[in-house]
Amino acid sequence: MKSITIKGSERESVGKKATKALRNAGKVPCVVYGGENHYTFSADELAFRDLVYTGAAHTVKVDLGEGKVKAIMQDIQFHPVTDKILHIDFYQLFDDKEVTMNIPVQLIGNSPGVRNGGRLLFRKRKLAIKALPDNLPDFFDIDISKLKIGDNILVESLLNDDFAILHPESTVVVQVKTQRAAIVELTDEEELEGVEGEEGATAEGTEGASEGGDALSEGSSEGESKE
Predict the structure, then answer these.
(1) CB burial class (10 A; 0-12, 13-18, 19+) of residue 130?
(2) CATH class entry, domain 3-93
(3) Comparing 27 with 13, which gets the higher pLDDT?
(4) Stretch 218-225: mean pLDDT, rounded?
C-alpha cells in the first residue's frame, strides 16, 4: 500500500485553548495511539489533502523530526459548517501486528447487463480487512465485464491468503438487477432455437405463398379456357 508522509510538530500543550490556537493558525491537532507511547502533534491542514480527499487508502508516516511513526488514519472530525478538519486520530502500525482497515473497491470494465437495461447496484464500496501492514492492498479491483442481468459478485470470490475479509462470504459486493425496460438476455442455445424457428416460419410462409400462387395461376387458366 502507498504511504504518505505527514510532517508535523509535537504539541507542547493539549488543552482547549492551545487546540483552538492551532486551528486558528490553520493547523490540525492529531494523536497517534496503539503503541507503548502516544504521540500528540499538529500539522498544516493542506498536508492532509492527499490523505483525506481521495478514494484511495494509504498508510501514513508521521515525521516528527526525531523519527517517523508508521500509522493509519483511524478517525477524523470535521467542522459541521465549514467542513474544516478539526482533529485526526491515527493508529500506530507494527510490522508483526495485524491491523483492521477499510479498503476501497473499484470496478473495472463495462457490464453487458447494464448495456441491456439492467441496473448496477454497488453494495460495498469499501471492505473491512485484517492484515499485516505489508499485506494491505491499495484497492479491491473487481472486473464486471461479464456481469449479466441477475448476476452478482460475492465476498467469497475475493478471498486471499494475505488477509482476512471481515464480512460474511455471502455478502454481495456488486450486482446487476433487472428493470422493466431491460432486454432479456438469451443464451446461445436459445438464440439458435429462435433463429431456427424464424427460418421454419419463413419456409412455411414461402411454401404457402407458392401454393397460393399456383392455385391462382390454375384458376386464371381455367377462366381463360371457359372464355
Answers:
(1) middle
(2) mainly beta
(3) 27
(4) 43
